[in-house]
Amino acid sequence: MTFFVLGIDAATWKVIDSNLGDLRYFGRLKEVCKSDTMVLEQEPLSPLIWCGMFSGAYPSEHGHREFVGGDGDIVKREDIPVDFIWDELDNDFDVRAINVPFVVPTFSFNDDFEAPGFGLPTDPDEWSSELNEVTERSLELLDKDPDVLISVYTSLDRVQHFHWGSSKVLKWYRRLDEKLGELLFDSGFLEEKDNSLIVVSDHGFCSFGEADVQTLPKETENGELEGDHDKNAILMTKNIEFEIKEPQDIYRSIKNRFMG
Question: Which domains does the chain carry?
């Protein structure tokens, strides 16, 4: 039995639901999973949300909002004063995590995964590499039957920041959809009745000018932004009894399953 949390940074129902004819495996997931929208009450900032999702702590407790701290230094895991679910379970359970983007480079636990682009892939080659490498490593880890596996794809965030509203967005959702097929269906993971699955994003997406919170400047060294984060994250669950309403509930659902 494996409890698998699959994060998809920036995934939005706006793209998925309007393109199910092109996204076969997203469609199949919606058939076998309970689907919902997780509306964020916290700022839709990736470091803040992923940190809370796997620590159960609120921003006032973990104090982590940006990849770079007020002193100009990149924030490291040891700078964040909370325990994460993998810390709490590690003594008694086999817990693995790869490519969790609450810090840069992305964080992995009980694995030596090295993310393309340090977890901030910025061009098509790095986007492809991340999709392939996260999928391959996740499949390798699932073969070991861990109690908990946490894996995150981050490339959609960068794609949508720079190409929101263009055909390139759907192109990369299709690429991701293929990987979901390999990881969740072709592998047989969803056929095992005792396995549990959460598919979740840290926020949704919208046009740059519609965002409640501007997460990046309009002009960047990599070009002008077309999109930004909104507060509507995707959520799909299978064999999850715990009610999930906010990011911290992901942590609580895992803890409830293994620690009661």
Answer: 3-259 (3.40.720.10)
